[in-house]
Every structure is written in structure tokens, then in C-alpha cells.
Design a protein that fits this description.
The complex is a heterodimer. Chain A is of the alpha+beta class. Chain A contains 2 helices and 9 strands; from the N terminus they run H-E-H-E-E-E-E-E-E-E-E. Chain B has a single domain, classed as Nucleic acid-binding proteins (OB fold (Dihydrolipoamide Acetyltransferase, E2P), Beta Barrel), CATH 2.40.50.140. The chains are: A alpha+beta, B alpha+beta.
Chain lengths: 298, 156
């Protein structure tokens, strides 16, 4: 008895499909399992004012390198809210090269009104401008942020309007155009999200606001994000800036999750801000009364 | 007290709180505070700073009052401290403590507003003067034994 050729073909196709199913299905299932183990970063995250710690000096691979050595004091105790943030949000002094240290000193004097002219090479505060990433995780301690996860990418955005695209499916290219946000790639090391960023614009201010000091060419950062409690995210940032710094600069920041946070648009692009001249960036306090004030009490 | 030069040193050393505030506080005298009894006229509830307008009694003024303006922080940071846009209502009588403007105009940077019921709302905690004020008002630290003192403290 002979088996028809058509039947043999069908059997072959069926066998091949069965084999593929046996091989691929467990892999797919395992992939799903791996993905499910990645920490959940959903919700809004607010910078822990009292929980931030200064850099530990030279970069260290240990997340606990400087734990508690100069921890900030608890929050204000006079507010109606028990969760009032603390003012002592200290980054400490970046390890500037001597010429940058002098620039920082002059810029601080300019900020305090002791120098009339802005030191050459520094940037005055801009009332309105695109987010510029300088290697430190947060753009502004006041702006709550969130992580948006889509296939192959995690996007970090916040109330200030920063937008950082973290590509999870590629490596950093050796040739990068300089951009304000830089180019970021990420991967998971166990439960830790590791973000590497390069290609930052050399004129980005070292600290996003009022830092004044440019980071220079070739800056590079590595951020390691890990949940140290269900709603507490620790971010360890290490910035390398060969023009400006003598050694890597490390900052540890903590953010607390608030799923009920009501976001507020936070913009400096406000023509009616009374504290900065939008044309010059000069600091002042415009005490021109609004036109709709009620009359004084009798 | 912290003078302008030492403030500069603080800034140069650490790019501290003001590095994250929106601008320097150069127009305010943060070495001292003043206090006024005021009637709230209006709160401009907007980013990046709110402004509080308040009438303060001044018999020398023809109207009997003088208009003061007080700066504070952003909506974002103040709401985290318990503020809402209705925290200070028009017509409400409050006691306001503030860092005065150096140029003598009526107003300054809000330190705190005390309501008639004694409850308090504090100003922008990121203001460097605010941090210094809190440091000065904090109870003195207990003396440490040499064994408890971190080695790095000796270098400060």
C-alpha cells in the first residue's frame, strides 16, 4: 500500500508545526514570566525632599556608599500637612575642575547680585525653554514624574514637561548628535533599571535650573533605578563630564509613589511671572497690583 | 544670621536649595524676617510662583492701608505642603511672616501665614533662606562623643 504524496506533505507540515509549538511556546511563556517580574513603576513619583543624600565623592558601585552620612532633617512641622517637604535638598559640590569651580563661584556671586555681569560661558536662567538633561535624574524637585511603558521603550515625563525616551531594545550608538535630552538606552539588571545616556548638548546646564555651568562635551550618565520599598524608588546617578569634572559625580535621589497624585502643569513659560523679566531673564519682583483687587477693608 | 557673602559661599560650595529653586533670592533680605497683620486681598495662584496680595494697616496712608505683595513657590511644591488655591481667602485676616525686600518696598518672600485659628501654612521650602531659618530654629544638636563623630565632620 502506498501513501499518497499529498498525505505525506500534510503530515510533514503538521509535524513541523507541532515541533515549532513545542519549542516556541515555553520560550514565549518564559518571556512573559520574565516581563511580569519587572518592577511596576506605574503611578506618579514625587521627589523625597528629606530623603535625598549628597554624593559620596568618587563614583561607587555600592548604592549604600554614603547612606545616612548627611541625611536631611525631617520636613517642616508647621504646615497643615504632615507631608510637607524639606528644604535641605543638597546635591553637594560637583567635583569641578579648577576653572569650572571658579566659574561656579562667579556664577553664584552673580546670582547673589555681587557681580553685575554674568560670567562668560555660563547661562542665565531661562524663563521658557526646552527640557535639558544634564545627567541627574530629576529635572526639578517640584515636578512629579511618571514612567510610561510601551514595547521596546520606557518614557519618563513629568509635570515640567520633560520627555526622556529610554530605548530598551538597542545599544548606544558610537556616533550621536548632541541633543538637549541626549540619547538614552536602558536594560534591566534583575530588578534594577539601568539607563545610560550620552549625546547631551555640551551647553546644557550642569544642574537644570540656575546651575549656570555647562556640562561640556562628551558627558555621559548612568542611572540605576531600583525599588527599595514597594513605593520608594532609589535613583543612583553617576555623571561623567570630562570637560567639567575631575571625577564622576554621583547623586542618590529617592522618589515616593503617590498613585492619587493630582498632576499640575508646571511651566516656566509664563509671561505673567512677576519674578523674572521674560526678555532679559533679570530677577526682580514686579509689585504692580492686579487690576481686580477688592477694595481695602474698612 | 547668614550674610550675602556666606550665602554666596553656600551657593558656590553646594549649588544647594536655590539650584533647584527657580531663581536666586537676591532681592530679599533673608538674614531677617518681618511680620505683619494683614487682610488677604487676592492670591495669584499660578506657576512658577504664586503671589499673595494683602492689605496692611498703615495710618500714614490716606486709605489707612498699604498693599503688600508676597512671593512664594510653585503650585506643585506648595500643594505638597498642604496648600490649595483656597488656603488664603480674600478678606481673611492672617499674620504673615516674610523675608523683606531689600529695596524697602512693601512685601517679600513668604515664610509663613498664620490663620486666625492658629493653623499655619509655610512658604516655599526650597527657598534657601527658609532652610537657614529652619536650621536656626531647630533645637541644638546633642553633643556627640568623639567616637560618634564622623571623620568627615572635622574637615568642615
Amino acid at each position: 500500500m502506498t501513501i499518497p504524496r499529498r498525505r505525506i506533505t500534510r503530515l510533514a507540515i503538521f509535524s513541523a508545526l507541532a515541533a515549532i509549538t513545542l519549542v516556541v511556546a515555553p520560550t514565549w511563556a518564559a518571556g512573559k514570566t520574565t516581563a511580569a517580574r519587572v518592577p511596576d513603576l506605574s503611578g506618579w513619583w514625587l521627589v523625597e525632599m528629606g530623603g535625598n543624600r549628597p554624593p559620596s565623592g568618587p563614583a561607587s558601585s555600592s548604592p549604600n556608599a554614603s547612606a545616612g552620612t548627611r541625611a536631611a532633617t525631617p520636613g517642616a512641622n508647621v504646615s497643615r500637612s504632615a507631608s510637607a517637604p524639606d528644604a535641605r535638598f543638597v546635591f553637594g559640590q560637583p567635583p569641578f575642575k579648577p576653572e569650572y569651580k571658579e566659574l561656579a563661584r562667579k556664577y553664584a556671586a552673580y546670582e547673589m547680585g555681587e557681580l553685575k555681569e554674568k560670567p562668560p560661558g555660563t547661562k542665565a536662567f531661562k524663563t521658557c525653554g526646552q527640557f535639558r538633561f544634564s545627567g541627574l535624574f530629576i529635572a526639578d524637585a517640584e515636578a512629579a514624574l511618571e514612567f510610561l511603558t510601551t514595547p521596546g521603550r520606557i518614557t519618563i515625563t513629568d509635570e515640567l514637561g520633560q520627555l526622556r525616551r529610554i530605548y530598551m531594545d538597542r545599544k548606544l550608538s558610537a556616533e550621536l548628535d548632541e541633543t538637549y535630552a541626549g540619547t538614552s538606552v536602558g536594560h534591566w539588571e534583575g530588578q534594577t533599571l539601568v539607563i545610560e545616556t550620552a549625546g547631551m548638548n555640551r551647553h546644557n546646564q550642569f544642574l537644570v535650573l540656575a546651575g549656570g555651568i555647562p556640562i561640556g562635551a562628551g558627558a555621559h550618565s548612568v542611572e540605576r533605578l531600583s525599588l527599595i520599598a514597594p513605593d520608594l524608588l532609589q535613583v543612583e546617578s553617576v555623571v561623567t563630564a570630562p570637560d567639567a569634572l575631575t571625577e564622576p559625580y554621583k547623586v542618590v535621589t529617592r522618589l515616593r509613589r503617590d498613585r492619587d497624585h493630582t498632576p499640575h502643569e508646571f511651566s516656566y513659560c509664563n509671561d505673567s511671572d512677576r519674578y523674572l523679566d521674560p526678555s532679559s531673564g533679570a530677577i526682580f519682583f514686579d509689585l504692580t497690583p492686579p487690576g481686580d483687587l477688592p477694595p481695602p477693608p474698612k | 544670621m547668614i550674610g550675602a557673602k556666606s550665602m554666596t559661599a553656600v551657593l558656590a560650595m553646594g549649588l544647594t536649595a536655590s539650584a533647584l529653586a527657580h531663581h536666586s533670592a537676591v532681592m530679599y533680605d533673608e538674614t531677617k524676617t518681618a511680620t505683619v497683620e494683614a487682610t488677604i486681598a487676592k492670591v495669584e495662584w499660578q506657576n512658577p510662583h504664586i503671589t499673595i496680595w494683602a492689605y496692611v494697616s498703615n495710618p500714614q496712608n490716606s486709605e489707612g492701608y498699604e498693599l503688600y505683595g508676597f512671593q512664594s513657590g510653585s503650585i506643585n511644591i506648595l500643594t505638597r505642603g498642604g496648600w490649595t488655591k483656597d488656603t488664603l481667602k480674600s478678606g481673611e485676616k492672617v499674620t504673615i511672616e516674610y523675608f523683606p525686600l531689600k529695596d524697602g518696598r512693601p512685601g517679600g518672600s513668604l515664610v509663613k501665614a498664620v490663620h486666625a485659628d492658629g493653623s499655619v501654612n509655610t512658604g516655599d521650602p526650597l527657598a534657601i533662606g527658609f532652610a537657614e531659618l529652619k536650621r536656626r530654629s531647630a533645637p541644638p544638636a546633642q553633643p556627640k562623643s568623639p567616637a560618634e563623630t564622623p571623620q568627615s565632620e572635622g574637615a568642615k
